Hints:
A three-stranded antiparallel sheet has the order 1-2-3. It has a domain of 59 residues. The chain is an alpha+beta fold.
Amino acid sequence: MSEENKKEGLNIELTEDTAQGIYSNLAIINHSPSEFVVDFVQMMPGIKKAKVRSRVILTPQHAKRLNKALSDNISKFESQNGEIKDVDPNQGVPLSFGGPTPLA
């Protein structure tokens, strides 16, 4: 943040629609020499077709800052709530979400 922004503050607008958020249970990340593309996907149980709900395009520098901010916040979360359990990487993406297999 520049010295000017520190003195004056940063005015960020959050519309009501944006404040509702988009649910995502899968992120797909691709990159080129000049940008990172993060697709936030919503998968539904038993359905093999998933939908990209939001796409965020970042510069490499911003992607690195985001990575650091996420790591810092995950560390803080785990210190307050315990370790976040990860899924077994050998299982792949759980398409059934642990529920029954749909018959229709």
